[in-house]
Specification:
The complex is a heterodimer of chains A (260) and B (243). Chain A has five helices and twelve strands. Chain A has 260 residues and is α+β, with helices and mostly antiparallel strands. Chain A has a single domain, classed as GHMP Kinase, N-terminal domain (Ribosomal Protein S5, domain 2, 2-Layer Sandwich). In chain A, the strands form three sheets. In chain A, strands 1, 2, 3, 4, 5 and 6 form a six-stranded mixed beta sheet that branches. In chain A, α2 crosses α3. The radius of gyration of chain A is 19 Å and the shape is elongated. In chain B, a hairpin with a 2-residue loop joins β1 and β2. In chain B, α2 runs parallel beside α4 and α3 runs antiparallel to α4. The longest helix of chain B has 17 residues. Chain B folds into two domains: 74 residues, OB fold (Dihydrolipoamide Acetyltransferase, E2P) (Beta Barrel); 129 residues, 2-Layer Sandwich (Ribosomal Protein S8, Chain: A, domain 1), CATH 3.30.1370.10. The chains are: A alpha+beta (260), B alpha+beta (243). Chains A and B meet through α1 of A and β3 and α3 of B.
Amino acid sequence: MSEVVSAEIQTTHIIDLARAGRRLDGRGIDDWRPVSVTPGYVKSADGSALVHVGDTTVLCGVKLEIGKPFPDTPNAGVLTTNAELIALSSPTFEPGPPQPEAIELSRVVDRSIRAAETIDLTKLCVTPSEKCWTCYVDIHCLDHAGNLIDAAQLAALGALTHATVPAQRFGVAEHDYPLDVSHFPVECTFVRLGDRIVADPTFEEETAGQGRLTVATDELGNVVAMQKGKIGAFSPDEVVETVERAFRHGDRLRNVVRGT
Amino acid sequence: MGKRLFASVMGYATWREPYVRVVPFAGRYSPKPHDVIVGIVQDVQKTFWLLDIDASRWAPLHTSGTSWEPGPGELDQFLRIGEAVLVAVENLDATGKIGVTMKGEGLGKLSGGTLATVSPAKIPRVIGKGGSMIHSITQLTGTQVAVGQNGRIWIEGSSEGILRVRECLRIIETEGQRSGLTERIEGFLRSTGPTDDTGPRMPPSADEDRPDRNGAREEPSGPDDAPDIPSNESHEGEGSWET
């Protein structure tokens, strides 16, 4: 039952509502569900964050270990992002090796963090070509009620923002110190429903959606990453409009993550 | 036999010697014969359609269970993938195979309207004692509703009416354990009554929606309120300890 066809009358209804500027849960076209970020949720991790976007729940943990730099980047640390879509979180997820959805999720989150230079990887280098910090960003989906990408990215950013480098434990420095986060990229996902483009889609809206666009923005006003998903198209004007909306939401969500 | 009994699910227990009954608070739908349920066509085969009924497995609907007589390979002219149908559980065999039929009063293809979902455990609350809850909801919102025991509910009416029914279902789902639910739903609907797309309306003007309902009924396969009746019967016991 990994792929269940949803009822046509249901998707038609969602699209009809969107045409009138309305949504099933009463939100407006550009409204997000309530967002909460709880940093430091897992005490045993070097950094962690639990994120709720409506009913969607994502937990992200950051682990820092001493490893060896890649031969082609001897002066940089290593950043690895992984996403786990546990079967408990949605009837559409199966146990077993990662499904394409999980791979896309981890790569899209990774891309925004890497492209925005959220962490200056050269600062994670301890001894060139020999010793560096390896930063593992592990994303776990606990409840999938739509818009996993944005929730996962917020969780990853939240976990990194409040992470500690365990330098003492690894005997690299005398004291642990906070991980240096230089930029704050935030992703915003939109889904096309008929001629309208809605922000923060629910699971039902994602299923009914005719094209999905994710825009990652940073606090300097740069678009740092994008991802297009599902079957469907966006006109150039729509892309521009979507980017503007992503900045508006991004600025608000950045404050939520930074706790200001 | 030990001295203690343990339920395998968390729920509301009633003890009537020599039986113990546990009504689960939540859980996947487990089919029972004569249940009226909403299925969604997932696949079309040579002689049957496969329906997702939100149970542990898909249920085949054979052409013999319908009033149609499609020739070989003609099944998708009657029902296509993604279409919703109101069917009844006919039989369950020892292997867990679920036989469903579309022959029966009010059963058939669901065209128009939309679907909402609640936990199957909350369906007795949605129907109410003797159908009182569902009657109030349909009357006060001017909609037509078919309740499937598998937690899927078909709603037809104005888009405002549909959204109000969904709000009712959300209230039932979150506050289903408390008493006086029907009164609270009625109160909610009356208090929010005159907010319609078409402007202010008094409750009696629900009659204006009647033509729509009749219109839907005239469709050959359009279901009416009939599906509520078998549902009440099969769950009367559960309804009696609430409300």
